[in-house]
Design goal:
- Strands 1-2 form a two-stranded antiparallel sheet.
- The chain has 16 helices and two strands.
- A hairpin with a 2-residue loop joins strand 1 and strand 2.
- By secondary structure, the protein is an all-alpha fold.
Amino acid sequence: MTGAVSGRALEPCWIRLVYLLAFAAAVPESMWVMQRFGPERAYLPVLGLFTVASVLCGASQAPWQLIAARALQGAAGRVLGSMSRMMLVTAAGPRRLPRVMAAFGVPVFLVSVVGSLLVGELVTFAGWRSIFYLNIPIGLLAMALALRLKRPRPTDPKRTLDVVGLLLISPGLIGVTYGVSNAGHSRGAGSAAVLVPACIGLVLIAAFVLWSMRGRRPLLDLRLYRHTVFRAAAHSALISGAAVIGGAILLPLYLQTVRGEDLSTTGLLIAPQGVGVAAATWLSGRIFERIGVLTVLAGTSILLAATVPFAFLTATTSYAWLVTLTVIRGVGIGLTMTPAMTAAYQTLSPSQASEASTQFNALHHIGSSLGTATLVMVLTRLPHTLAHDPMHQTHTFGIAYLVLSTMTALSVLSALLLVHGRRRFQQPLLRDNTPLLLH
């Protein structure tokens, strides 16, 4: 966003950063909201809050108003995501879960493709406020559909909020996210702007872990990490967040920096990856039913095979080859992210699945922040980064893609751990499709 509010240019990085910080801070609260009120009952009010926040963003007349509205939007968006997954997991049951999660993932990825194509044109012809106002009709339609949801009684209506845990984990996540985001800017990874907030955040998170292990009703149930499959899937969520979301920044930068393409052309060249993701996500449910968690191993292997060639890009690499690689990479992504979560959900009870959804999202968010910051540091810190010679620029992008390939290789290793854990945990199901929990 490069628009101005009240004549003052507002840095796009701050608009994005405050959303990410609020997104991170709302992770633990979403768990309490779902248990205290139930996802079906809380969904409509939170959706309304997100829509109102979008209106406030579009109507902002001062920088602080836009920042505050984006924070509210990020917090509501975080809770909405957790509730949506929780309702699907509960309604589907373990046997139908692979196909249901796959069907859920397809529109999510397709919307990201359409969004990447339309946002640039929308901003050009209607201004940056139109991005937020577009959420109004979508939000109203979603609220009308949400009125049809059945509203069962909440699972734990008397659950009290763990205030101490909240005061530890929310600032902790904000500190880590803020510190990591600063690593991609001019001061570098060793600066106080990175180390101080990140270290404070890690200390607070460590204190939260100690508090939660001792508390009777903690904000997040960390005992889930004793569960073999969950622990492996959590590791996969962290690494895949770095490899997938972090890697999403490189190709647009290459196309605009080295090849000199505009936003519209860049969006068209990147869109095929979303098509590959959507197609593979749709098929992942059926594939998972046949080969189980090996789907994740196949996906990460495909993702690695399609990422390594990017390290050898030149200033004249064929666009046909680029598009082919992005489609294959999309297939790998589609076979990795949703099946990994499905493998864990199948071995958990509904109440545990709600905890798992929240924690998976938190880990994926942290992983994506770490991956993005690491790759931005590579692009901004290596020699020749600021050179205008395309050869030097492609050299830097090549090194960045080698780093991304290393992250992707780690995701393959995490998939192997998941396969090993799932084979050790051969989970029988009760007649009502409820997992019989074994530890």
